[in-house]
Every structure is written in structure tokens, then in C-alpha cells.
Amino acid sequence: MFLLGLVRTYLPESFCINHIFKLMNLKTNQFNILFFILLMCSFDTLGQQLSFNRLNSEDGLSNNLVTSIVQDNRGFLWFGTQDGLNRFDGYSINVFKKSDEDTCSILDNLIFSLFVDSKGDLRISAKTRT
User: Fold this and answer.
1) Given its phi and psi angles, is residue 24 left (phi above 0), alpha (psi -120 to 50 degrees) or beta?
2) Which domain holds residue 61?
3) Mean of the pLDDT values across residues 100-118?
């Protein structure tokens, strides 16, 4: 009733109530078409199998306590753990750890957070060296 009151307020007197119902019916038909399209799209995805796997230290992860996860622009999944940085390519895990001999290594094995910036570079927040 509120809708009809608003319509009567903003429409001229000559506008018949049947026109309102025709407009509402048109909106309903558009909604039904949209709903049908969305329903058909959902049937297309029913045949797809989704699977999820767990990664742990038995799979090569440096530590089971993961502190941060991010996916870079090339599709690699990066896991920050309490014992290093891990890169997963979908098949295997590469572990990156602190190395005193390598000045380009991560600052510490304790990774707090990971972030991919707008340039696609991986940013790592780790415990600072003491």
C-alpha cells in the first residue's frame, strides 16, 4: 500500500492504477528472466568438481602454524609460517629461510604477514634481526 501511495503522489491523476500493475508485472517478468538465467548458469557449475587439499609439514611446509597466506600475480601461493616463507606452485613447496651468509634472504624465519603490492611485488613482514 505504501508503494501505491507514493505512486499516486508522484504520478498525474490520469495515470490509471492498471498501468501501475502493468509496470509492476513488467518488472516481475524481468526478474523472472534474470532468475532463469542465473539458474541456468548454476546448472553449468554443478558438473564441476571442487576439491580442497590441506598442506602441512608432511607435504613440505616448513611449519604447520601458518600466519599469513597470499597469492601473487603469477598464481603462486605464499605461506608465512613461524619457521620460514613457503611458496606453493600447485605441485611442490619451496621453503625460504633466513641465511646469515645471504644478505638478500628474509630477515627472520618468523613471518608475521604477507602482502602483494600494486606492482605485484611480494612484501614480507618478519621479525627484525637482533
Assistant:
1) alpha
2) 57-126
3) 91
